[in-house]
Write a structure and sequence with these properties.
heterodimer; A: alpha/beta; D-Maltodextrin-Binding Protein, domain 2; 2 domains; 10 helices; globular; B: mainly alpha; MetI-like fold; 2 strands; 74% helix; 1% strand
Amino acid sequence: MKTGILSLAVVTAIALTACGRPAEGSGRVVLQNKGSDTLVNVAQAWAENYKDVNPGVAIAVTGGGSGTGISALINGTVDLANASRKMKPKELEMARANGVEPVEHIVGFDAVAVYLHENNPIDSFTIAQLADIYGEGGKTDEWGHLNVDVPGCNSSEIVRVSRQNNSGTYVYFKNAVLGKTGEYKLGSRDMHGSKDVVDLVEKTPCAIGFSGLAYATDHLKLASIAADDKSAPVAPTVASAMDGSYPIARPLLMYTAGEPTGAVKEYLDWILSDAGQRIILDKGYAPVRKLAE
Amino acid sequence: MFESTALNDKNRRVEKLWRLLFCAMTVMLVVPVLLILGVLVVKGGPAISMDFLFTDPTDGMTAGGVFPALIGTVWLVAVALLLSVPLGVAAALYLSEYAPDNLLTRIINLAIINLAGVPSIVHALFGVGAFVIFFQFGTSILAASLTLAVMTLPVVIVATRESMQSVPHAFREACWNMGATRWQTIRHVVLPNSISGILTGVILEVSRTAGETAPIMFTGAALFLPYLPQSVWDQTMAMSLHLFVVATQVPGVPEHLPFGVALVLISMVLAMNAVSIGFRMYLRGKKKW
């Protein structure tokens, strides 16, 4: 009987000491970095490499989508929120109401590539054509409407692959292609992750999908995009994203609560240094500036 | 002695048919398990090595090992067990041994059953709201393990209560007649005789805790963290989330890697289960009825 009470007391004591312990004091600084699935792999690569630059700072990286990162910033649970879209006015308002002043940092650029099955004969789209395929009220539902016959696609139906609605890619594509007031057509396959889009399009001859250029594989076709009928189509590449000639390229962002200081500032400075920017280039995104050879 | 009649023969044939049918269904249950294990071993086997178990992931998680995730899962399971087992066993003790059969008890029972039916993603959101934000534990092992503990409490409570109630009532009466108090009866008769059932509950909890992804991905698990957790206030990597990530989020992962992660995760759970199953068998051998 005594042992029973004793063990109960021990458990309670452990629980209490655990609760009473302050969060700081382990000596190592841990930065919370959360958000965009587009940025998650480069964020992970930065974190992995920063271990060698500054062993005293650990970066905990979590994905979930731009929306997840931004709401974590609003709630004050992250140091750096990754986003592949700008914060909406309503989100800024909520942040300020919580006493958080979000500061935006551009850490790179990403071309949103339009992916096709490798057998698809189409080489390029105009933005208007894409809007007809993806947008509400758009008339293009079959590959036949574009006067192409896709080998292996028996029904001729265009299988539209899109993203879940808290994805920054989803929001960016909507604004850039469908216009500010445009809405997506119903019936698209909404994937939870950039890689899932690419995987599905790779296996589906009828499919079209959009996702960051960094997710390109050898078994896919990347369509060139023309801003309108008069301009020439531009292929999605790191170079065309950087010089702005590719029409659907976007800045990749990190948000901090207030101007960064201390370890957060050092980490951001390193990300924007040549060493950090070479990593983002390695991952298939465009750096913020031309890097020295 | 007896001639079998036509009716006897028919009954016997029908009997045989039913037995075969039930046997076939039982075998069908085993098939997926064997297939899963087989696929994991064949496809994930080549990934497994000492290095895989004991090094950090490298090259953007397309190479290297799973060490931080492995240790993280051990942390999460251990802290969750530490929180939920004492609480669950105490609650089950009260419900089985003390609680009168009244409206309140029935409401409590109903709540437990409903808690068991809540989807894990809802537990995750509850964990974010309650532990991460309201109690200000931040995204930490503590918040994640608390969420897991809340999620698995019904398993522990139900298993413990069932096993306590399977102890024959005559045992208790005999004990009371010797002048023992309720607590003495529980301590010396009910608990020793139901410990194997309690362990079954714990086994179930361990498997579920180690495998859950949703409740931890917002409350304490990081996609990547190149350090081992030092205390319950740290974030951590976890095997289940790591598997999700290498399978769906990272481009260019060699095929054997996700299968290797899955194989390690399932072996971990089986190993933890094996320990408690062994212990349970030892205890059951000492059972007196």
